[in-house]
Amino acid sequence: EVQLVESGGGLVQPGGSLRLSCAASGFTFSTYWMTWVRQAPGKGLEWVANIKQDGSEKYYVDSVKGRFTIFRDNTENSLYLQMNSLRAEDTAVYYCARIRGEGERYRALEYWGQGTLVTVSS
Amino acid sequence: DIVMTQSPDSLAVSLGERATINCKSSQSVLYSSNNKNYLAWYQQKPGQPPNLLIYWASTREFGVPDRFSGSGSGTDFTLTISSLQAEDVAVYYCQQYYSTPPTFGPGTKVDIK
């Protein structure tokens, strides 16, 4: 059974940093593109970033470029999102998701974690 | 970036009746080399993560009831729930994965009338 479990969320002050983790199990993690998607309270879904199987390609939504870094550790079956210079508008539930289809980038998001809440506030 | 719009914002349908949600993309998401529409539909119930219902615009994900169907091509798409059940109360999102960044529609809330 595929499982994605996020952790690392919490309350942080504006300008602060946080690292989110996503522990993956039930599939061969190293063969899939992985994604972070966020959802502000009461709002819709926003794609944040994705990363290739070997970490050699990474893509970000414009609003987080230069502040967030996606990376992965295939030996630990884990995905990460390092978030720096956090702003109030980054407040959201952050979901880790697996792209449907081994080795594929342009695919739907087949499996999602339960999410971890990040609150940026003073 | 491709902008996704959905209509209506919300709808209320009687149990057993049909619910129809529309999604439009600001540019075509049909990839000519494989004739596939890079369009997905997700269902999100309160307090839960999104759940993939439909991909390639019309292919039902494994385990999704056949009352859910997707149609359309190019820039105009539809999600149809043929006979609404109580457990279908949720927000539904379309998403294009044709280009980066992948973008979602704003969502359509479906309730029971």
Which structural traits does this protein have?
heterodimer; A: 122 residues; mainly beta; four-stranded antiparallel β-sheet; B: 113 residues; seven-stranded mixed β-sheet; globular
Description of the molecule:
The complex is a heterodimer of chains A (122) and B (113). Chain A has strands at 3-7, 10-12, 18-25, 34-39, 45-51, 58-60, 68-73, 78-83, 92-99, 109-112, 116-120. By secondary structure, chain A is mainly beta. Chain A is globular and about 40 Å long. Chain A starts with a strand and ends with a strand. The model of chain A has no long low-confidence stretch (mean pLDDT 97). By secondary structure, chain B is mainly β. The mean pLDDT of chain B is 97. The chains are: A mainly beta (122), B mainly beta (113). The interface between A and B is medium-sized, with 20 and 24 residues.
List the uncertain runs of chain B: none
Can you give the helix content of chain A as a percent range?
under 10%
Major sheet description of chain B: 7 strands, mixed
Helix segment tally of chain B: 0
Rg of chain B is: 13 Å
Assess the beta-strand content of chain A as a share of residues: over 45%
Strand pairing plus helix content of chain B: what structural class? mainly beta
- Low-pLDDT segments, ≥5 res of chain A: none
Task: Give the N-terminus to C-terminus distance of chain A in angstroms.
Answer: 40 Å
Number of strands of chain B: 13
* Backbone CA Rg of chain A: 13 Å
Instruction: Choose one word for the global shape of chain B.
Output: globular
Which pair of chains has the greatest number of interface residues, and how are they split between the two chains? Answer: A-B, 20 and 24 residues
Give the strand tally of chain A: 11
Mean pLDDT metric of chain B? 97
